[in-house]
Every structure is written in C-alpha cells, then in structure tokens.
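User: What would this chain look like folded?
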Amino acid sequence: MTFLQLSEANIIGSVIAFIIGLFLVPLIIVFSEKKGLMDKPNERKIHSQPIPRLGGVAIWFCSMLSFLSLIILSYYPYRSLLSGILLGSSLMFLLGLTDDLFSLGAKFKFVIQITIASIVFCLGVKISTLYIPFMGMVEIHPVLSYFGTIAWIVGISNAVNFIDGVDGLAGSVITVSSVTLGLIATALIPSDTVSSLIAFILAGSMLGFLTYNFHPAKIFMGDSGALFAGFILATLSIMYQMKAPGWNMYVPLLVLAVPIIDITFSSMRRILKGKSPFVADSEHIHHKLLHLGLSQNKAVLVLVIFSIFTGWLATYIAASDTTKYFIYAVIISTVMIILNRHAKIGEGK
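Assistant: Here's the prediction, encoded as structure tokens.
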C-alpha cells in the first residue's frame, strides 16, 4: 500500500515541480549569463538583446526531481511504458541541449529524432490501431504502425519547438495541453495513472518556468525544453490513443491544435516555395499576429485562448464530467502565474 494515492500524487508532483522551478530557473539564468550561453538577436528573432537559452535544463530537472520526490514519498507508478517515455524524453532533451550549445544541423537533428522515436516504439509506445467509420477499430500493419508513430512523435516534438518564437507562448500552450492530457487520461476506464502523473508534473514544471518567460522574458526554454516537452506531449497522446474508444482516439488532435496547425501550414508554405520544411523562418502564426500589429502579450493571449478552447472541447468530448476540473486548473494556473509575476515585478522595483 503506497503512502500517496494517485490524485494526491498528481497534485503534489505538480506543486513540487512548480516550487523547484521558482528557485531553479533564476540559478540557470545567472549561470547562463556568467558562461555566455545566450540567445543572440538576429534578423529572424524578435528579441533585441541576448537572453539566456537554457530554460530547458530547469524544466527537465524540475520534472525528474519531482519523480524522485514521489519515489522518496513511497509512490512510484510502475509500468513498462513509463521507462520508454522517461528515456526518450531525456534523450530528446540532451539532443536539444547539444543544439542550444553547439547549433547542430537540421538534417542531423532529424536523424537523431527518428532514432530516439524508434527506441520508444520498440519499448511499446506505438500507434497500432485506428478507428475507421463503419469499420470500427482496425489493427494496422506493423510497418504502417512504425512510420505513423515516428511521424507523430517527431512531428509534434518539432511543432512545439516551432511555436517557441514569442515570450510565453510555447510554455503556455504546453501547460494547457499537459493539463488536458492529464485530465482525459484520468477519465479513461480504467484510468491511465502514468500518463496523468507525467502530464501534471510537466504542467507544474512549465508553470515555474513561465514565471520568468513572459514578456519581457528573462530566459528562453531553448530547443532542450521545447523538444523535451514536445516529446512528452506526443508520447502521452499516443498512450491515450492506445486505450481510447472509437472516435475519442482522435481527441489529441484538438489538444495539440495550435502546434499542429502551425507546423502544417509552415511546412506546406516552405515546400511550395521550394524550400526545406526544416529551415527556420519568421512566418509562423505568431509572427503573422505580430505583423498585424499585435504586441507579444496580445499575440500569446490570442493563441492561448484558442488552445484553452480546444482543450476544453477535448475534455468535453473525452469525458464531459472532467470539464469543470479543466476550468479549475486553468483558473488556478492563471492566478499562480499572475501572483508570481507581480512578485517579480515588485522585487525589480
């Protein structure tokens, strides 16, 4: 019998991650500034001065230390697929961290991402069935299962990285998506305790980071944070799909609507222009909102409101009785961020 029940573990895990983030992110900022590990302005970026870019280190440490804390409190969610998610996300974090430090080539990163996704596929995280109208749940061929799983994991990981172009945007969308996936995983019968716990810990880690990431940002999450979080969201959505009945297996498309829409149109635009879909540019959705005259905060607000709406819709479709908890989580997260932002502004003055 464990000391903690599941619901308590979710709450405590997210709170621990949040508190660790409040103390750890400033240390990462100071370290980055001393070592010169800064994201410097250029023609494609919108910030005008160097900003520390190792926020992903704090996000990863917050998540892992939260798991360690739960183990110390005699709670550990034993399950075979958990090792695949923790291993794969950590490898993706290391890839992103290496890119933040040494600027890797796009093709090389793509190959490594496929390799990491393949490892996770072999550990059991895979898309093996699809719901087809008038046919029901259909088992798909192992080859199609492999390519579909790899495409989803690599695609979502990069999609989350692509929206990390405006202060606070990626972190906010990741938080909303994590809370949504955590709630719908809990609503499954039987509930997916592992996915729910991972999702809430990621949300707590991201909230701690966001305190220092809203405009004007004091730190960026970098590729390490974006790829780490994107990988977790991708694999958690697959784990939900593996257990969801019927049409509900497509609910993650709503949960991850913002990054999916952005990467789809960005890739199509680049291909039509004869460019590689992996070459970065300044024509993402958030850039277009800025070009329309919106400030960074307003652009983030528009996309976060859309993400909250699609998240609410996802919880309503998956299990309508969880909708109120989604609303509670959004309100609590917003209040936590506002209070901490005011505290930081007060310290600055």
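The chain has one domain: 6-348. If you want, I can go into more detail on any region.
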